[in-house]
Amino acid sequence: MERVNIKVATVSVLNGISEIKKVATDYPSTWNDFPTAIYRTVNNPHFVDGSGEELQTKWSITIELYSKSSLTTIVNNVIERFGDIGFTGTQRDANTADLKRVIIELSAIVDNKTKYVYSK
Question: What highest taxon heads this organism's lineage (predicted)?
Answer without folding.
Answer: Bacteria
